[in-house]
Amino acid sequence: MKHIKRRERESNEIRRKIIEAARSLFLNQGYAEVSMRKIADQIEYSPTTIYHYFANKEAVVRELLLEGNALFLQALQQSQEEAEAAGLNALDKLKTVSDAYVRFGMANPEYYSILFISNLESVSLVSLIDSGRFKGFELLEAGLLAAMEEGGIIQGNESLIASSVWSMLHGLTSLLLNFELPMTSSKDELISFTIDTFFRGLQS
């Protein structure tokens, strides 16, 4: 029994090494430039070992997308649950979830790039309709509708408004990840100010 558990642990560790190496290589070199051999060399294993865990490069991408999407959706859902537990109104729940979006990107820059910048979905079998990214958008839409019904923001096309909110969050996150902004305040203050200012423009 101990031997089986040890083998399972070792197998999981190797799988994790493959995923982490591939994530870094895809982002630094681009999908087209990365081969299974390069991934193997990165972690000092033979290509045969890599193929034991993943049939091909597309399978590695699929695993990365599934993992990243799950982490992203979990972050948004957790923030929503915490906001509900705190008894916040619909608008403040939206702000909390919006903050979680940006925080996810800052805490997981490689996964954020994979999900929202590098377009690795185009070479995978992961359907956008099933992804955490899409479900996160649905969560945002539902939150906007609730805020409209409460009178916290203007009535309108919740899908259009959700796309606008998402664009703002993506722009802010991308700036924070990729540029050194000339700021006299902290990143926390910038995130809070940007989200508050945006939603103030939607208030009825």
TrEMBL record:
Known InterPro entries for this protein? Homeodomain-like_sf (IPR009057), HTH-type_TetR-like_transc_reg (IPR050109), HTH_TetR (IPR001647), MT1864/Rv1816-like_C (IPR025996), Tet_transcr_reg_TetR-rel_C_sf (IPR036271)
Chain ranges of the HTH tetR-type domain: 12-72
UniProt DNA-binding residue ranges = 35-54
Q: Keywords in UniProt for this one?
A: DNA-binding, Transcription, Transcription regulation
What protein name applies here? TetR/AcrR family transcriptional regulator
Q: Which organism is it from?
A: Paenibacillus farraposensis
Name the lineage. Answer: Bacteria, Bacillati, Bacillota, Bacilli, Bacillales
